[in-house]
Design brief:
Elements: E1 4-13, E2 37-46, E3 49-53, H1 59-64, E4 68-69, H2 73-78, E5 89-91, E6 110-114, H3 115-122, H4 129-132, H5 137-148, E7 152-155, E8 159-162, E9 165-169, E10 178-182, E11 189-193, H6 199-203, H7 214-227, E12 234-236, H8 242-245, E13 254-255
Bound molecules: zinc ion (ZN).
Length: 265
């Protein structure tokens, strides 16, 4: 089974600085230097099967947190000829505000999440303002609506969502962080989401500053590398370089199943 995968950008932040995106900064690294951030959802497509990885954020949450909302995931899907009713499954890599919104826009989809992630987002950790900050109450409330509607499937660790699409629990960034491995004509591609925000987080082993378990984060980098068929088969979650390294459709959907335009060094 070979899938097509499209990275669909729904937001950006051109004001982002380097020190916000990597933990380790020497003065020579110019911590204040510009390091823009993109926000994506990913569509996995083969025939009638459409799996959406993450569901982004609505404009209110995005704007309140200082980022630029470009379009809804529904509008982004329309660019590749799909509607919300085509989405049979949603894999939520983790429940941070920029990944877990808009779930009610996909009423026919089954939602796949790690048990530890929803437990974290609805349990004692949320008594802490620091741990609560990357989560969004309206989004979590919509998740509970979906849960009570019988639409949520919990996973404990690695699992297969469909032939050629597997999820792998890695933790680190959040307790229930999972990555998605997808069979394509160029070999298995790993959608790393926020296990790897930027290529640099992986290449320099320099973590993104938001994480709950440093050791698990570093081990996740190794897991992602092991699951992928080489560096150009790893897709970071927020790196604008993705849009230049892979071919795009006329509407701007980035085709990750195709060979890269420029291979990362
Ligand atoms: Zn994110």
């Amino acid at each position: 089974m070979d899938y097509r995968i499209f990275a669909l950008r729904y937001g950006s932040n051109g004001r982002r600085r380097r020190f916000e995106n990597v933990i380790h900064n020497r003065p020579a690294d110019r911590p204040e230097a510009s390091m823009p951030m993109d926000f994506f959802v990913w569509a996995i497509v083969c025939g009638d099967r459409v799996v959406l990885v993450d569901t982004g954020s609505g404009p209110e949450t995005m704007t309140a947190r200082g980022h630029d909302h470009l379009r809804s995931p529904v509008a982004a899907l329309a660019d590749i000829g799909l509607g919300p009713a085509d989405v049979g499954d949603v894999i939520t890599t983790h429940m941070h505000w920029d990944h877990a919104g808009n779930v009610l826009d996909f009423p026919d989809a089954r939602l796949h999440v790690q048990r530890t992630e929803l437990a974290h987002a609805t349990g004692p950790s949320m008594c802490s303002g620091f741990l609560r900050r990357p989560y969004d109450l309206p989004q979590v409330s919509e998740w509970l609506q979906a849960l009570y509607g019988g639409r949520v499937t919990f996973h404990d660790g690695d699992d297969e969502i469909a032939p050629g699409i597997s999820i792998h629990h890695v933790g680190g960034h959040t307790p229930g962080m999972q990555v998605v491995r997808v069979a394509t004509e160029r070999g298995p591609v790993v959608l790393a989401s926020d296990a790897v925000h930027y290529y640099e987080n992986l290449d320099a082993e320099n973590p993104f500053p938001v994480l709950v378990d440093t050791i698990a984060y570093v081990e996740a980098l190794r897991t992602v590398a092991r699951l992928a068929d080489g560096p150009d088969h790893i897709i970071p979650g927020h790196d604008p370089l993705v849009r230049t390294r892979f071919p795009s459709t006329a509407e701007g959907a980035v085709a990750l199943h195709l060979e890269p335009v420029a291979v990362p060094s």
